[in-house]
Write a structure and sequence with these properties.
Strand order of the largest sheet: 3-4-2-1-7-9-10-8
Radius of gyration: 23 Å
Largest sheet: 8 strands, mixed
CATH topology of the largest domain: Carbamate kinase
Strand content: 15-25%
CATH class of the largest domain: Alpha Beta
Helix content: 40-55%
Number of strands: 16
Structural class: alpha/beta
Shape: globular
Distance between the termini: 43 Å
Bound molecules: aspartic acid, magnesium ion
CATH architecture of the largest domain: 3-Layer(aba) Sandwich
């Protein structure tokens, strides 16, 4: 049995969903039974976070506007995708039910004037329920028996809202009990990625990009023969092909190496995906929905490839650097602890942080989408310190991106750090912040957002040539 997962861009509109339904049908014919996992349509999860935060900060009307857009987008997709009045009617009903539920959450959040991480999970997971209903309906219309299944029924997690940890033993029982009978009678389960629930049924999420992890959990618990993750690129590449046209696909990687690349932000793979598969030796494939003939990247325990892989460059856009500055001697190490826990409570993921040695400032890297919520939370937390002059400022400093260079593991990757800095020096790139892990074969730098692409192209060319 295969587990196949489709990301948000693979299901971003009716045309893509129809294509995905065709791909699922073909894969089933060629490889036998499978379980499907889907993400929310591209951009939907971001909108859900934005609307919850708008409602919490007194902009209920704005939140309702965003909800209307979500309703319109999903109804339009259903209208274009589905032909039979029965499937269309059912899908419209499913969409309305989810939207009405969201509408009630918006009201409650607006009344309270705040949103907890627990409520954020309730709201954020709605996108997967919507896309899942559409993909299942599209499959049935194409003659593939399919049933939408919400992973809140399947995956049991702890109550760490925003990035819950699954309990694989408990989940296995539920997954096998619910999915095996479906698969045995020839039905394709179409499972919501990203969402799960605590043992007593309170909805949680697995963290942003967590649908890959859902696929790995299902694959491990069902002892799948392979797990395939379909996105809009040809697997894991030496750089983002939209930035570096000559970037090459890494044909084969070890589990450990793939996990490292994912941890550095390789968008195609959620970092937690690898471990459950590695433990059971289940191969993982990363494929392109829009180029299904491309072999993509295969992740296995013993890569057969000869020689070390080239260094991979992973870049991220759309980040914001926040700064907290002390007032001379008043700085205490406790500021960092408070800042990090405040942001965690606000449901914001801090991607990198650093404390300067001499200036007594702390900088925190967050997604631009989280910037306003982060600043509001930090201003609340440090309001007294600012008023009393213990701190001099809490502010958004600049819009930035990150570039990470990850060399091949072992001796081959050594020297990546000086080579990267030499290239940055030759290009004269202004480096805002640096983070180097304990290992000598990876390094990450923060640069102004507008410098990211040109810098990535330059480093890729320089390192490739050496
Ligand atoms: N829809 C979720 C997100 O945007 C999960 C995923 O796409 O994997 O983070
Ligand atoms: Mg993803």
């Amino acid at each position: 049995m295969l587990v196949v997962k489709f990301g948000g861009t693979s299901v971003r509109d009716a045309t893509c969903m129809a294509h995905v339904a065709g791909l699922i049908g073909d894969t089933r014919q060629r490889h036998g039974p499978l379980v499907v996992v889907v993400s929310a349509m591209a951009g939907v999860t971001n909108t859900l976070f934005a609307l919850a935060r708008a409602a919490a900060s007194g902009h209920e009307e704005q939140a309702r506007g965003m909800l209307e857009e979500l309703l319109a987008r999903h109804l339009a997709t259903a209208g274009e995708l589905l032909r039979t009045s029965e499937e269309l009617g059912q899908a419209q009903q499913a969409i309305r039910t989810v939207i009405e539920e969201l509408s009630r959450y918006i009201r409650s959040i607006a009344l309270l004037g705040e949103v907890t991480v627990r409520t954020l999970d309730l709201v954020a997971g709605a996108g997967e329920r919507l896309s899942c209903a559409l993909v299942a309906a599209a499959l049935r219309e194409r003659g593939v028996p399919a049933e939408a299944v919400w992973a809140t029924e399947l995956i049991v997690t702890d109550a760490h809202f925003g990035a819950a940890e699954p309990d694989l033993e408990q989940s296995r029982l539920r997954i096998c009990e619910r999915l095996r009978p479906l698969v045995e009678r020839g039905t394709v389960p179409v499972v919501t990625g990203y969402i799960a629930a605590t043992p007593d049924g309170v909805p949680t999420t697995l963290g942003r990009g967590g649908s890959d992890f859902t696929a790995a959990i299902l694959g491990a618990c069902l002892e799948a023969s392979e797990v395939w993750i379909w996105s809009d690129v040809d697997g894991i590449l030496t750089a983002d092909p939209n930035i570096v046209p000559e970037a090459r696909t890494l044909a084969e990687l070890s589990y450990a190496d793939a996990a490292t690349l994912a941890a550095f932000g390789a968008e195609v793979l959620h970092p937690k995906t690898v471990a459950p598969l590695m433990e059971r030796g289940i191969p993982l494939r990363l494929l392109n929905t829009f180029r299904p003939e491309h072999p993509g990247t295969r992740v296995v325990s013993q890569p057969q490839a000869e020689g070390p892989r080239p260094p991979a460059i992973i870049s991220t856009h759309g980040l914001s650097l926040l700064g907290i500055a002390g007032n001379g001697a008043a700085w205490t190490p406790e500021v960092a602890g408070r800042a990090l826990s405040t942001l965690a409570k606000a449901g914001v993921e801090v991607l990198m942080f650093s404390q300067s040695f001499s200036e007594r400032t702390l900088s925190l890297l967050v997604r631009q989408a989280d910037r306003e919520a982060s600043l509001a939370a930090l201003e609340r937390e440090f309001g007294d310190d600012l008023r009393a002059g213990r701190l001099s400022k809490v502010a958004a400093l600049s819009q930035v991106g990150t570039i990470s260079v990850v060399g091949a593991p072992g001796g081959h990757g050594a020297g990546i750090v000086p080579k990267t800095f030499a290239a940055l020096g030759r290009l004269n790139t202004p480096v805002v912040s640096v983070s180097q892990s304990a290992s000598e074969y990876h390094v990450s730098v923060v640069v102004p957002e507008e410098e990211v692409d040109a810098t990535v192209r330059f480093i890729h060319r320089e390192l490739d040539a050496q």
